[in-house]
Amino acid sequence: MRLCTLAAAAMVFAGPALAQDPATMMAEIKNADGGSRGNATVTWADSGMAVVTLDLMDVPPGVHGIHIHETGMCTPPDFKSAGGHLAGDHDHGVMSGNGPHPGDMPNIHVPESGALKVEYFISGLTPQAMADEDGSALIIHDQPDDYVGQPSGNAGDRIACGVFEAAE
Question: In this structure, is the dihedral angle defined by the CA atoms of residues 54, 59, 60 and 65, taken in order, positive or negative?
Fold first, then answer.
């Protein structure tokens, strides 16, 4: 059943632009029906590395690509409003000679329970890039990322999305 225009407009998940660089950003990850699938947190260490923590639930079991996208908007059902990956001046994927994008992350391997908690260290991901005037979002894809395909690793449809906002 398709959402009517008014209902779809009411389900746009968007956050405000941020006035200053945050030390920590958080996103509630939701599916196309608006159901929560958990949270993502990004914290910047003094070393400059970003620590990304995912605490997920009710995600379909299997291997999924997961990326930080360039626009802080999550309009269901396809979440294309989040734009492409947060790319900087790099190609997609750790297997690419000019990669990876700052928003590229390792695939998640979700067990049958649908719950997963994991932490990643990412270099090149900055608060300035994530908190620019149109923000950023985390996308979970239906398929695994192949770590080389352009521009997004052939990771398939977008099945969940969350807009990053400064943590309080």
Answer: negative
User: Which residues are CB-neighbours of 46 under 8 A, at least 6 positions away?
Assistant: none
Q: Which fold has domain 26-166?
A: Immunoglobulin-like (2.60.40)
The residue type of 46 is: D
CA distance 78 to 7: 15
* CA–CA separation, 21 and 73 (whole Å): 19
- Ramachandran angles phi, psi of 161, nearest 5°: -150, 145
Low-confidence residues in the chain, pLDDT < 70: 1-22, 91, 93, 95-96, 98-99
pTM of the model: 0.84
DSSP string, 21-38: --SEEEEEEEETTS-EEE
List the chain domain ranges.
26-166
Q: Do residues 24 and 52 make contact, with C-beta atoms less than 8 angstroms apart?
A: no
DSSP letter at 164?
Answer: -
Q: Could you tell me which of 136, 166, 142 has the C-alpha nearest to residue 154?
A: 142
Burial degree of 93 (CB within 10 A; 0-12, 13-18, 19+): buried
